Amino acid sequence: MSKPEQLPLLLERDGAIATLTFHRPEALNAINVPMAQAFLQTMQQLAADATLRCLVLRGAGRGFMAGGDLATLADNPAQGAADLLGPLNQAVELLAQINAPVIAQVHGVAAGAGLSLMLQADFIYAAEGTRFNLAYINIGTSCDVGASWALPRRVGLTRALEIAMLGETLDCPTAERLGLINRTLPPAELDTAVQGLAQRLAAGPTQALGQMRRLMRSGMYNDLPTQLAAETQAFMACAHGPDLRHGIAAFQAKQKPSFQGR
Fold first, then answer.
1. What is the domain partition of the chain in residue ranges?
2. pTM of the predicted model as reported, rounded to 2 decimal places
3. CATH 3.40.1000.70 assigned to 9-202
């Protein structure tokens, strides 16, 4: 009797919070073409979901993600890379566009494309003992999946070049000191901490959070007049929604706001 086919990616919902689990535990969740395609399809689904208010990314089994599946690249690297990067890049673009804040819940290992994907999150919480390595240079290639965009924004250009070009493994204390991750937690506390953060963010003004996450990224390369215009456009979008009115009223009444996410 044949085994049932294993889904490469799992999506769970808890109200407004979605948890996306990369699910190839036997391969440390290395991304192959089916997983890349499933990631794109899932992001298309989430990007169209107005009820989504927080997204958690995590990996099944022993680690977050070991990177791209080298078996996909071994025989024909150019074709394998094209098959992987097409859907992955589209998925990452959608990840950047959604209003819902994104949390990466990381354990074990985040390497190669796994580190690249981790870096696309707004918050990165890691279990003690996690190891980080951009790794691309160690197999003779440059980076992908947005690492060259996200890494300098997190750690600065000097540190980004060092991490990318030396291909060395970083432990949690080093990663936290460099700003690569937000927090390190004991493994037994990671789930609770991430869920607490997800609930806090999901209760927030989702449209405002979405505008904020995009403004903080665009501000890294826009000149001041361009960024001021972008801020004005974002603020006006919030001003036309109910959450700002409610937030002001709650503040004036000295009450805790109950945002609708719009």
1. 9-202, 206-252
2. 0.93
3. no
